[in-house]
Design a protein that fits this description.
By secondary structure, this protein is of the alpha/beta class. It is built from 10 helices and 14 strands. The protein folds into 2 domains: about 220 residues, P-loop containing nucleotide triphosphate hydrolases (Rossmann fold, 3-Layer(aba) Sandwich), CATH 3.40.50; about 60 residues, Alpha-Beta Plaits. Helix content is about 35%, strand content about 30%.
Length: about 300
């Protein structure tokens, strides 16, 4: 399975609200990509545009180098934020119906539904109505509906919302598994710790514009350089005072956190620390994704 999703120059205005403002990005097969932004940033509108569920004023969505067709979308899987299940319909019947809409045979849809429900711990609920399930189990059924036909592109809008840690782990493992099988996976979430654990790449948008995109590891080590230093016997970090291009951001319990300007040689900082005593810690600090996110929104 190979795939490339390209979003090119999307624009969408609702009356006086600009929902998408020349938004472009891409997602490749084998990637789990976090789609991040504050409420109202344009994430859901973008996802709906990929599936042709909202009109665009400009731009296009491409799949494997060509404009997305109706046939392409049958091979996509979508888990909307406003869940699209029929509450009064039996779970098994509903999943088979959705599988048929994606072009599956009746038997294949039944087998796939049974397999996924078994994996997600819902095999004994196949004849229950969706409305009888807890929120977390409804999430599992909605995910099953998106996965039945083994999609080449999987897009999920807030799939982790309201889940307990076990539910988050279960869904996260499935997303990683599908990506390893060659699927393109794009999902939105406000739970940045989970995004950081699951995703290789993130896309950050606000007001419909792209603010930042890149590999999580690259973003974590980019920006201002941060250094954590601990010197035996030092309690106030006074050894670092006066170092050119070095700002002390925090001193606590003998640990000194420094921000280094561009061009500052860490060897010079290490030498200054050694003059003050035995250095027991000297580590460049990674930025957490939450910090990358906040800085992108400034």
């Amino acid at each position: 399975m190979a795939g490339l999703l390209e979003v090119r120059g999307l624009r969408r205005r609702f009356a006086n609200l600009i929902a998408l403002d020349d938004l472009s990005f891409s997602v490749r097969a084998g990637e789990v990509v976090g789609f991040l932004g504050p409420n109202g940033a344009g994430k859901t509108t973008t996802m709906r545009a990929i599936f042709g569920l909202t009109d665009l004023d400009a731009g296009e969505v491409r799949w494997n180098g060509a404009s997305v067709s109706a046939g392409d979308r049958r091979r996509f899987g979508y888990m909307p934020e406003e869940r699209g299940l029929y509450p009064g319909m039996r779970i098994g019947d509903q999943l088979v119906y959705i599988g048929r809409l994606h072009g599956m045979s009746m038997d294949d849809a039944r087998r796939a539904a049974a397999s996924w429900l078994e994996r997600l711990g819902l095999a004994d609920r196949v004849n229950d109505k969706v409305e009888s399930l807890s929120h977390g189990n409804q999430q599992r059924v909605q995910l099953t509906a998106a996965l039945l036909h083994e999609p080449e592109l999987l897009i999920l809008d807030e799939p982790l919302a309201g889940l307990d840690p076990t539910g988050i782990d279960d869904i996260g493992a499935i997303l990683v598994e599908r990506a390893r099988a060659g699927c393109c996976v794009l999902f939105s979430s406000h739970q940045l710790d989970q995004v950081e654990d699951l995703c290789e790449t993130v896309i950050i948008i606000d007001h419909g514009r792209l603010l930042e995109t890149g590999r999580v590891d690259d973003l974590a080590t980019g920006g201002a350089r941060r250094l954590v230093v601990r010197v035996e016997g030092d309690r106030d970090g006074s050894w670092s005072t006066g170092l050119e291009g070095v700002t002390v951001s925090q001193v606590a319990g003998g640990e000194v956190r420094l921000i280094l300007d561009e061009g500052v040689d860490t060897d010079d900082v290490l030498e200054a620390a050694r003059r003050a005593g035995r250095v027991t810690e000297f580590v460049m600090q990674r930025r957490r994704l939450s910090e990358v996110f906040r800085e992108a929104l400034r």
